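Researcher: Structure for this, please.
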Amino acid sequence: MARQGKFHKQLSLVDLTFIGLGAIFGSGWLFSASQVSAIAGPAGILSWLIGGAAVLLLGLVYCELGAALPRAGGVVRYPEFSHGNLLGYLMGFITLIAFSSLIAIETVASRQYASAWWPALTKAGSSDPTLLGWLAQLVLLIFFFLLNYFSVKTFAKANNVISIFKFVVPLLVIIVLLAHFQPQNMQLHGFAPFGFAGVEGAVSAGGIIFAYLGLTPIISVASEVRHPQRTIPIALILSVALSTVIYLLLQIAFLGSIPADMLAGGWSGIGTKFSLPYHDIALALGLGWLAVLVVSDAVISPSGTGNIYMNATPRVVYGWARNGSFFKMFTKIDDTSGIPRSALWLTLGLSVFWTLPFPSWSAMIRVVSAALVLSYAVAPITVAALRRSAPELPRPFYVRGFALLGPLSFIVAALIVYWSDWETVSWLLGLQIVMFFVYILCKMASPTGPAKLAQEVYSSLWLIAFYALLMVVSWLGTFGGIGLIAHPWDTLLVAAIALAIYYWGAHTGLPSSLLELGTEEED
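Model: Predicted structure, token format:
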């Protein structure tokens, strides 16, 4: 029978770096190139640079948190440490949505590409799966579950092997497509045919930010890392830097290798013409062998990422349970394997749920991207608050220039969520506001709940104000809204709101007397 135990410190720098790179290189690189091209044209190159810079900023912030507080499920627990249980509860909820749905989206991506070989997996004329296709996705999810059920080292070894193959194919694609590069493609309809709004929109809607966000699995397994103070920052920075270079080269190679006659109607139709970008362009260039290799990798790459998030999500559930906002049964760790198995079962159930009612990759991407960024966005404010309330906390990795980088990283995160469009922002942030009031009502009904409630509300009210203001601007703005606030004034307004919210949140963290940072030994 499982009992309360401790996580086992088994992960090395190599393991952790491959976890980060493996999480980043999932279905994003396989689908994003054509989507980015359709939204931004050749200027999509700038979108990748913006996305990489944004994630690197957030990664640096996480380096300070991850090294100072190596805790299981850290992405959920850090807001709780700095601002109390209510903020931890809200971040736990949005992170659980992001992580569990991401496992599902990777299995969907594997199935979509596999349908190039087995058409019976996907309905004719659409990206939606048949019943056989959905069953194939279910088998993949169960396989991820079993890989993670026995020990974290079993998971890590499987991930390292998969990751090596995952990078060989993208590098080969870059080399082959650059050999067919046509420089005139970059200016055929202008470098930025859709203006800077297209560049901005591609960051979220094109799948760029989704493609980059593989940092939180590194933080989630922090308690299982050897020498975390040194290992976590190096693994984070290496993951982002290497992925940025590869993504840029992939996008440039795709843009330049499209046959000129297929661009006669402009860039907007590229997403439809190349629904499986690198497979389809290989066929268009007469490179059947490359198309076969891409499909092979397209089944493996998303599978590797899904496996990583099947590993990370139980740690998020565990972290959420530790702050008392979730069922205590999910704090149990099997003492033999070092795995929170009850949380792993919940993760399997949620990931299966997100594959219903048989969604396609493109249908899920905006929601998953926005949810992931929201789970990251609070980190800069957490760091600022802890620097005020816990200045004596040892910080083996100390972010220099944080007075500038802190607010800048929060502003960038806010803009990425805003660029996701009104439909996504409205229901995702609206749901968070609903969960805020659900928490308050439950605490007020509890005999011991009201005691700390006033402080928790005070320390998290800035987040609800941020959500509400972002929803208003999204409705009035140009990214899926009614267009009352024209571009770029809507983007500038969101940046101003984010700046004000940042300082509000940084100054309303828990006072030093109420801080409960826990200990690594507890985990």
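Researcher: Any notable elements?
Model: The CA atoms of residues 183 and 424 lie 36 Å apart. Confidence is low (pLDDT under 50) at residues 1-5.
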